[in-house]
Amino acid sequence: MSKSISILDNDYREWVKTLATRYKNSQIKAALKVNSEKLFFNWLLGRDIVEMHVEERWGESVIVQLSKDLRSELPGVEGLSKSNIYYCKKFYLLYNQYDEFFQQVVGKIESTSFGNALLPTESKDSTNFQQLVGIFQIP
Fold it and tell me: Which of 59, 87, 92, 99 is the most exposed, fewest CB within 10 Å of its CB?
């Protein structure tokens, strides 16, 4: 027969509080990671639009079509409206301008730099973008 745990046991209550706090902290970390990945996707989408000269190549209405096609490919995913896609482009243009300005700051902080080109690989882009997000502390 097992020993019954007293509800009034202080050690047990403290342990439950510790577990609850640990769980809440994990939720916050997970939400921040998800948000960071969404920001990175938006930044890459904006980068693609700019670097591929999408509107010049396929015309102004390509963003409307892109929105429809992405929503068709990704049903239930939010943030793929025409206006949000334009915001992704603006987001990239805004933060891409800070790349060279903050290169020296990041170099001093982490002994690394963004480099001049952000396009070659997504893993390099991910590192650069995460450093950029860290600098601006985008929530």
Answer: 59
Contact (CB, 8 A) for 128 and 39: no
Cα 75 to Cα 93: distance, rounded to the nearest angstrom:
27
Q: Report CA 125 to chain centroid distance, whole Å.
A: 12
* Model confidence pLDDT, tens digit, residues 76-115: 999 999 999 999 999 999 988 765 555 554 454 444 443 3
* pTM as predicted: 0.65
The count of other CB atoms within 10 Å of the CB of residue 71 is 15
Q: What CA–CA distance (Å, rounded) separates 24 from 29?
A: 9
CB 55 within 8 A of CB 62: yes
Are the C-beta atoms of residues 50 and 93 closer than 8 Å to each other? yes
